[in-house]
Design brief:
alpha/beta, Rossmann fold, 7-stranded mixed beta sheet, 7 strands, AB_hydrolase_1, hydrolase, AB_hydrolase_fold, AB hydrolase-1 domain-containing protein, Epox_hydrolase-like
Length: about 270
């Protein structure tokens, strides 16, 4: 997009691809899956117009970020990447906006490095202690994509039937449901979407092409590890941590029809 600056920053052994727009207080934007820096393109423009310096990155193993060590694959490593990024850019404190699994990284950054966070906004993902997540996942239905994609070989076989653009298209259509998409024992996850199903209204063919090109570059191997197969590793790394306090102001934004509410704490269903 016009005006957005692209660059690479060496941090924690990787060359992280970042994009920047605007000047002022820094807002760091953290994506999820099947997302990428590009997922924040509209918000970057809005933030810049409002007097902020927006930075959207590609996590290790995603998009245009280079030199990812496949053996370093958990949320704590991603937090270390962010710390190295801020140090390299000489940034003391930032605001953080994160969605999907990027919210887990944002939360961890908030309680592991509270001195670096001015404020945190999480989109779609309530806070959970890492040690609770493996147990919570045990109660996820077997046909849920989160459980399916956590099994090595299962998503690889599912995705291997399609080109990258079709994979991205079907995942985004799947994720637009207002109830949890559950596959039967005889179905693959991507079979829940028909070939004739249209793109979501907010996604254009041009957008799909951008996503497809970026995922052609990165592949899906690392995105299946982080987030879907790293919950036990996250929990093990943080098992001895007692303080998960985030001193900075925290905002959770979640839609009434978001199916994550079916898996979340009942208190999130209350109307205020």
């Amino acid at each position: 997009m016009e005006g957005i600056n692209h660059s690479y920053v060496h941090t924690n052994g990787i060359d992280m691809h970042i994009t920047e727009l605007g000047s002022g207080p820094v807002v760091l934007l953290l994506h999820g899956f099947p997302e990428i820096w590009y997922s924040w393109r509209h918000q970057m423009v809005g933030l810049a117009a409002a007097g902020f310096h927006a930075i959207s990155l590609d996590f290790r193993g995603y998009g245009l970020t280079r030199n990812t060590d496949a053996s370093k694959n958990d949320f704590v490593v991603c937090v270390d990447d962010i710390v190295g990024l801020l140090d390299a850019l000489h940034l003391d404190k930032v605001y953080v906006v994160a969605k999907d699994w990027g919210a887990f990284v944002g939360y961890a950054f908030g309680y592991m490095h509270p001195e670096r966070v001015l404020g945190l906004a999480a989109l779609g993902i309530p806070f959970s202690k890492p040690v609770a997540m493996p147990e919570r996942r045990k109660h996820t239905p077997d046909g849920h994509y989160i459980k399916r994609w956590s099994v090595p070989g299962v998503p690889e076989a599912d995705f291997g039937r399609f080109d990258v653009a079709t994979i991205i298209k079907r995942i985004y259509i799947l994720f637009c449901n207002s109830s949890m998409p559950i596959a039967s024992d005889k179905e693959q996850t991507l079979d829940l979407v028909k070939a004739s199903d249209p793109l979501p209204d907010w996604m254009t063919e041009e957008d799909l092409h951008v996503y497809a090109e970026l995922y052609k570059n990165s592949g899906f191997e690392y995105p299946m590890e982080v987030p879907y197969r790293c919950w036990e590793r996250n929990a093990a790394k943080l098992a001895n941590r007692e303080d998960f306090t985030i001193p900075a102001p925290v905002l959770l934004v979640i839609g009434d029809c978001d199916y994550v509410l079916e898996m979340a704490d009942p208190c999130l269903h209350r109307k205020h």
